[in-house]
Design brief:
Layout: E1 7-12, E2 15-22, E3 28-31, E4 37-42, H1 47-56, H2 58-72, E5 84-87, E6 90-98, E7 104-108, E8 111-116, H3 122-152, E9 158-162, E10 169-172, E11 177-181, H4 189-202, H5 210-219, H6 223-232
Parallel strand pairs: 2-4, 6-8, 9-11
Antiparallel strand pairs: 1-2, 3-4, 5-6, 7-8, 10-11
Helix pairs in contact: 3-4, 4-5, 4-6
Bound molecules: zinc ion.
The site of zinc ion has 3 residues, from helix 4.
Length: about 240
């Protein structure tokens, strides 16, 4: 029997399916709010069997992920109670509350509680959540950056966070400056790690050729899975 809550990602022809072994009777298929494919299976099911089941449901995942993506691009977020936002790859429901104190954002179970002064506009709420996502990212980067700089054997002159529409990260190798998309705080943590390693590797190799890929294989062996997940879930508008 596999340990409870064991979780891994399997690649089915380009779909990254997260499989979790849980105390459930049946196999459950699900598409997360950011279009990610998930499957939970009983604890007693072997890993090989679970992967076989995932493969046999490729069409299901493909159709439903496409539908979820279409729904998601319906319109911009209003940052109201009941809307959903992914934080580190986990869906959180927004709960907007009013406060006369300093605005606050905190995770509470499945909720992301946003406390702002009454009358704060949707843009104001968006900015505030964005700042909070930035803080979350900085918190993780505090440990990730020194660890991976050491591993890759480089030093970034600066790491800037900003919201970008089409890129997850970028690197100017001549100056050593790296920029990371704050939208990474909405994806599974491994994605941030992978993009960070990607940009650090660019300090050694400017292009995406075989030398670059070999470095990625060395420092982030499952980078392809996370790359594909990001390719399939572009940053929200
Ligand atoms: Zn690159």
């Amino acid at each position: 029997m596999l340990p409870k809550g064991m979780c891994y990602v399997v690649d089915v022809n380009g779909i990254a399916i997260t499989i979790t072994h849980k105390r459930v009777r049946n196999v459950n298929l699900r598409i997360g709010s950011n279009g990610d494919a998930r499957m939970s299976v009983p604890l007693h099911m072997s890993r090989a069997r679970a992967m076989e089941v995932a493969r046999s449901h490729e069409d299901w995942f493909r159709t439903h992920a496409a539908r979820a993506n279409a729904r998601r691009s319906d319109g911009p977020m209003l940052w109201e109670t009941g809307e959903c936002l992914n934080v580190w790859g986990t869906e959180r429901k927004l709960s907007v509350e009013h406060t006369q104190d300093v605005p606050q954002c905190e995770l509470n179970g499945e909720l992301l509680v946003i406390r702002v002064p009454e009358g704060t506009t949707p843009e104001g709420r968006a900015k505030f959540v964005e700042r909070w996502l930035c803080e979350q990212m900085r918190g993780r980067l505090k440990e990730l950056v020194p660890a991976f700089e050491k591993r890759v054997g480089v030093h970034a002159a600066s790491i800037t966070l900003r919201r970008m529409k089409s890129r997850w990260g970028s690197c100017t190798s001549s100056t050593g400056r790296i920029r990371l998309n704050t939208a990474l705080a909405e994806q599974p943590p491994k994605c941030l790690e992978m993009v960070l390693v990607h940009e650090l590797c660019h300090l050694l190799v400017a292009n995406h050729g075989p030398r670059f890929k070999a470095l990625m294989d060395l420092h982030c062996p499952d980078w392809r899975v996370w790359q594909r997940l990001l390719d399939e879930h572009p940053p929200r508008a």
